[in-house]
Fold these 2 entries.
Entry 1:
Amino acid sequence: MTNTFNNGFAANVSASATLIYTASNNTVVLQLDLCNITNGARQATVWINSGGTPYRLAFQTSVPVGDTLQVVYGQKIVLKNGDKIYAQADTSNAFDVVLSVLENVG
């Protein structure tokens, strides 16, 4: 299989878990950004669910108004088939999320 660059997007992430991406093969996460689109500081939680277990990348991390939290930047995270990335905010319509991945690795 050929390596493929892909993206995952979510708009208006709220207080319930929002699925950002599901890996369908070996995948490398290259970057994951959350942008606060509200008029106040908000808290963000981001996690990978692998085999039914959540592994947090950020937990109730405060993001100032109009700022972007770079959850994954500069390092690489490997996802296996079926791993999922979720995001959650402390209020409604708080974040937009952009994820960049490289799929079909190895």
Entry 2:
Amino acid sequence: MKAEALVLEEKGRLAIRGIELDDRMGPHDVRIAIRTVGICGSDVHYYLHGAIGPFVVRAPMVLGHEAAGVVEAIRVEAGKAVEKGQVLVVLAAPSAAPAAGDGVP
């Protein structure tokens, strides 16, 4: 599945890049059609300084891990918690975001 992402290429340099996402779903997964993503203070800090403490940007990094969207697919086991069409807010850990097409998280 193709998507677009805001990628921090290196300190001070951003790009919108096409990325490939794995669209396989596990038994407890819900697929969310993302409608909006927030950029937080950590994202801005990475952009301005290229690091936060010991976490240094050494490869392109997808920014934005605070998203909202609409449930578009549900696996059976997850179906008890949400419904198709439901609006959700997602707070994913930055390490869960896929790398910008290079396989490096």
